[in-house]
Design brief:
Blueprint: H1 6-14, H2 21-32, H3 38-50, H4 55-66, E1 82-86, H5 94-104, E2 109-112, H6 123-127, H7 139-149, E3 151-154, H8 162-173, H9 180-193, E4 198-205, H10 214-230, E5 234-241, H11 252-264, H12 270-286, H13 293-305, H14 308-319, H15 330-333, E6 339-344, E7 349-354, H16 356-365, E8 382-384, E9 392-393, E10 398-404, H17 407-420, E11 421-424, E12 433-437
Parallel strand pairs: 1-4, 2-3, 4-5
Antiparallel strand pairs: 5-12, 6-10, 7-9, 7-11, 8-10
Helix pairs in contact: 1-3, 2-4, 4-9, 4-10, 5-12, 5-14, 8-9, 9-10, 12-13, 16-17
Bound molecules: uracil (URA).
Uracil is lined by residues 168, 177, 182-183, 186-187.
């Protein structure tokens, strides 16, 4: 082999050639020892953006990034280690329900989650709406909670895939986020370093997703599933609709409250329920905790009905520093915004389109998301009681309720929500689970 020259390696990809495996490994190793410069990482990302890597090369890139930091092992756990990754959306609080459901069914979920990105919400920001909840426990506490409770939802505390952190920051700043090869390696390097037996992917598709059309969502699903399986983790996925908020709430504390109501059986949004059952069902099969979809779904219903999943969530919150009685007295702990108002429909008709991205952006305008990485978040703000596609409304009937910290923010976000909801003729309902993707 010729000696490795980063500029030659980048030139090859730029010119549409697939680089040798050792060169990809060398390049990633150079990120760790700082011999690869930021300019070279940026040029590499742009070259891959225009000339995607082949599936075998994506495996090499993913494993090199996975091996750039610590890899977790869980010899003490007596059941399958399972996790889920969502490509992100609006009103997507599935993780808060899925982790305790899987734990109540006998799996272990060490869920290392992220913050909101662009217009999409982040699980970590939602968990931080719970007072006292520690999203950055040290490694012994994280392991103890996973072992004793069955799940822990935390932020990245151990050094998982540090090469991804560097590459991701540069991608964000160089318009190179939307490359299937780079998204695959980024997502999987972190998930594979967490020592999982099975990984379920929720690939969102629609106007509130990163991949708005089905063809792109399918390509991403295939890439993630083939790469995950080739690298030894049972990986499958669902392509699910993100053409409207998944839950009827969008905003951090409001989504926590919505998830608590789901877990306690007080209120259950139908699309959210379909996605929870779809993902959890596949995860129980991956972990051999059920032998068919029917038995998996029966198990999920049982742990929701008998309160076991809710109890796991309570124990997780308490073990990580949050209140022991959150589930029974949520209003005592989840602070509410000073202004809460209904948003009346401007006319009568059927809700026939929702610009979901605009709703995510309206949550940011309210202060519930970040304009820049260092911004603080107001967990109290957002929307709830959001109506769904196909719902009919009379003029002046509420289409949503807004929670705002100030009049000024409220007016801006109200306008955005009203422009996001299109009211007119009836439309045919589309499925929430669009497709199942398996290896
Ligand atoms: N989430 C990630 O972690 N990486 C990506 O590239 C996109 C979404």
């Amino acid at each position: 082999m010729h000696s490795f020259l980063p500029q030659e390696f980048i030139r090859q990809i730029r010119d549409g050639e697939q680089p040798p495996d050792e060169h990809l490994q060398h390049f990633i190793a150079g990120i760790s020892d700082q011999s690869t410069s930021d300019a070279q990482i940026a040029a590499f990302a742009m070259a891959v953006f225009f000339n995607e890597l082949s599936l075998p090369k994506r495996q090499v890139l993913t494993s090199a990034m996975r091996d750039s930091g610590n890899i977790l092992h869980w010899p003490e756990l007596k059941g399958p280690i399972l996790d889920k990754h969502s490509t992100g959306g609006v009103g997507d609080n599935v993780s808060l329900i899925l982790a305790p459901v899987i734990a109540a069914c006998g799996g272990y979920v060490p869920m290392i989650s992220g913050r909101g990105l662009g217009h999409t919400g982040g699980t970590l920001d939602k968990m931080e709406a719970i007072p006292g909840y520690n999203t950055v426990p040290d490694n012994p506490l994280f392991r103890k909670v996973v072992n004793r409770v069955g799940c822990a939802i935390i932020g990245q505390t151990v050094n998982l895939a540090p090469a991804d952190k560097k590459i991701y920051a540069i991608r964000s700043a160089t318009a190179t986020v939307e490359s299937i090869s780079l998204i695959t390696a980024s997502i999987l390097s972190k998930k594979l370093a967490a020592g999982l037996d099975g990984l379920m992917l929720d690939i969102k598709c629609g106007n509130g997703a990163v991949m708005s059309d089905l063809a792109h969502a399918r390509k991403l699903a295939i890439s993630l599933i083939e790469t995950g399986n080739a690298l030894g983790v049972k990986t499958s996925g669902l392509i699910t609709a993100m053409d409207q908020p998944l839950a009827s709430a969008a905003g951090n504390a409001l989504e926590v409250s919505n998830a608590l109501k789901f877990l306690s059986g007080e209120h259950c949004d139908s699309r959210l329920q379909q996605v929870v059952f779809g993902l959890c069902g596949k995860m129980l099969l991956q972990g051999q905790l059920a032998t068919s979809s029917t038995t998996a779904h029966a198990k999920i219903s049982q742990v929701l009905k008998n309160g076991q999943a809710a109890e796991v969530f309570s124990q997780m919150v308490n073990a990580l520093g949050g209140p022991a009685d959150l589930l029974h007295q949520p209003e005592k702990y989840l602070s509410s915004a000073p202004i809460i108002e209904d948003i009346p429909a401007p006319c009568s008709g059927t809700i026939n389109a929702i610009d979901t991205r605009e709703i995510g952006l309206a949550v940011i305008v309210l202060g519930g998301g970040r304009k820049k990485a260092s911004d603080a978040i107001d967990s109290r703000v957002g929307f709830d009681r959001l109506l769904s596609l196909g719902d009919t409304v009379e003029k002046s009937q509420p289409i949503a309720r807004i929670h705002a910290a100030s009049r000024n923010n409220l007016e801006q976000a109200r306008k955005m929500l009203l422009s996001a909801y299109k009211i007119g003729d009836a439309v045919e309902k589309t499925p929430t689970i669009i497709e199942i993707s398996e290896a």
